[in-house]
Specification:
Blueprint lengths: L17 H8 L4 E6 L6 H14 L4 E5 H4 L11 H20 L3 E5 L5 H11 L4 E6 L3 H7 L4 H6 L21 E3 L6 H14 L9
Parallel strand pairs: 1-3, 1-4, 2-3, 4-5
Helix pairs in contact: 2-8, 4-5
Length: about 210
């Protein structure tokens, strides 16, 4: 799926570059890749962060795993091969968003380290920030907002991450968030500070 099948195609450079778009938006494109088990708080934190950034006058957008599977990736399941393609596609979409100067937040379980590393390579070092929502399995299972763990334990769902499919935790994420001890609002403060230190958004003057 990663090979180019189309022939007679040429990359076309436009007249407006990334720096011009970022100057217009007064921010620099970035992708915060939120990874963690189902129920770890990824989407809640992602949307809280999006709201906070917009309130500060920035253009931000969340690419949520479930939402993407309703459209762009609706033809993919949850096999290792399909998960790989799921992440490859969203990384390519994220790359476009970053080039547009958008502060982009993804919320995908993305259980395999190799796939996340490939996403980092696609986006590029300096624009990709891996955010590990390190919420323990027992807490995620207790929350079970979608009832998925219950179905997985009952054998109604096969290949469910954390139950009968592995989750490979990041080894060197840019930031680790323990959503058992940190509220979405506090996590958002940490992530905004991360963006400020990286020079993606200006620091608010006191």
């Amino acid at each position: 799926m990663t090979k180019i099948k189309a022939t007679n195609i040429t990359w076309h450079e436009g007249h407006v570059g990334r720096e011009q778009r970022e100057g217009f938006l007064k921010q620099k494109g970035a992708l915060l890749w939120m990874t963690g088990l189902s129920g770890s708080g990824k989407s809640t934190i992602a949307y809280t962060l999006e709201h906070a950034l917009v309130q500060r006058g920035h253009l931000a957008y969340v690419l949520d795993g479930d939402n993407i599977r309703h459209g762009l990736n609706k033809n993919l399941g949850f096999s290792a091969e399909d998960r790989k393609e799921n992440i490859r596609r969203i990384a390519e979409v994220g790359k476009l968003f970053v080039d547009a100067g958008v502060l982009t937040i993804t919320a995908f379980i993305s259980p395999y380290r190799e796939d996340r590393d490939a996403a980092r390579a696609t986006i590029g070092q300096g624009d990709f920030f891996e955010v590990f929502c390190n919420t323990p399995l027992d807490i995620c299972e207790t929350r079970d907002p979608k009832g998925l763990y219950k179905k997985a334990r009952a054998g109604e769902i096969k290949g469910f991450t954390g139950i009968d499919d592995p989750y490979e935790a990041p080894t060197k994420p840019e930031i680790v968030i323990d959503a058992t001890n940190v509220t979405p609002q506090d996590a958002t403060v940490q992530l905004i500070e991360l963006l400020e230190k990286a020079g993606k958004i200006p620091t608010l003057s006191a």
